[in-house]
Recover the amino acids of this structure.
């Protein structure tokens, strides 16, 4: 897969008073992710070409992807495909990259979500409501030891748009 | 957080954020199109916004693209708006209790 064909459609940056190693661990381990990602468990095979899976709180497989760039603790690129029938065919593969840089005493974490086609704001609204809360929770967890519990509302706009495209939620 | 409020306290900078909200991931040229600001002024405003982490730039091929970064605004929301909401809810619930109990 040629990553250059994927254009960033959403990019977020957050500064975290922590170390690159800790941010990396928090992004790639279930123990951490459950705390800041509404109970979702990230499981990654730590190597290029390894599997990247996110389990929903009910244990179901929500996201299945693959590791495309693996440079701990600086850069991680994975495919991030939500496991709903027909979704990846209609929307194409979603690529998520985390870049971690030391910035003075803090760490600058940049997340970009890339796609190989134009997508409507309705489709992108899912990530755009979710990511700021997830990143903010990650920051709180690493800086204070706990993340506020955030009740995420269902992404109504996204679900409506998917329905209109003929994609059904399982 | 001071930087965020300072960056937002300017109409031109807010309008640049609005343009990115309407269409995320623009080049400097695209952002300058149709604006009554000089390219130099836009560059300066973008630098202030980036310093406050309200925009993020990344390279895509040969282009430098600008993205709206709502994370600091989200943090402000978490810190302030929720608290106010919680206060309102507590006040309403207290009002209900008093009215239902018939005291006062």
């Amino acid at each position: 897969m040629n990553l250059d064909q994927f254009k960033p459609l959403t990019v977020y940056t957050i500064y975290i008073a922590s170390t690159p190693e800790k941010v990396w661990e928090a992004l790639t381990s279930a123990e951490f992710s459950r705390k800041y990602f509404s109970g979702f468990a990230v499981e990654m095979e730590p190597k290029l070409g390894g599997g990247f899976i996110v389990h929903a709180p009910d244990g179901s497989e929500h996201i299945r992807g693959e590791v495309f760039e693996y440079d701990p603790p600086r850069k991680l690129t994975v495919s991030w495909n939500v496991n709903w029938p027909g979704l990846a065919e209609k929307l194409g593969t979603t690529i998520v990259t985390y870049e971690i840089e030391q910035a003075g005493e803090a760490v600058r974490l940049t997340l970009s979500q890339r796609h190989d086609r134009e997508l409507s704001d309705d489709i992108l609204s899912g990530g755009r409501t979710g990511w700021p809360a997830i990143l903010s929770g990650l920051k709180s967890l690493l800086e204070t030891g706990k993340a506020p519990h955030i009740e995420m509302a269902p992404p109504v706009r996204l679900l409506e748009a998917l329905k209109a495209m003929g994609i059904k939620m399982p | 957080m001071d930087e965020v409020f300072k960056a937002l306290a300017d109409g031109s900078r807010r309008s640049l954020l609005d343009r990115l909200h309407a269409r995320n991931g623009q080049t400097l040229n695209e952002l300058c199109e149709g604006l009554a600001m000089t390219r130099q002024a836009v560059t300066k405003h973008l630098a202030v916004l980036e310093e406050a982490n309200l925009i993020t730039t990344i390279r895509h091929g040969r282009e430098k693209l600008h993205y709206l970064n709502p994370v600091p605004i989200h943090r402000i929301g978490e810190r302030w708006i929720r608290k106010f909401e919680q206060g309102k809810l507590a006040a309403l619930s207290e009002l209900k209790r008093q009215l239902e109990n018939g005291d006062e």
Q: What stands out?
A: Chain A has a mean pLDDT of 92. The helical segments of chain A are 20-28, 30-36, 87-91, 121-144, 156-164. The domain at 8-164 of chain A is CATH 3.30.530.20 (Alpha-D-Glucose-1,6-Bisphosphate; Chain A, domain 4).
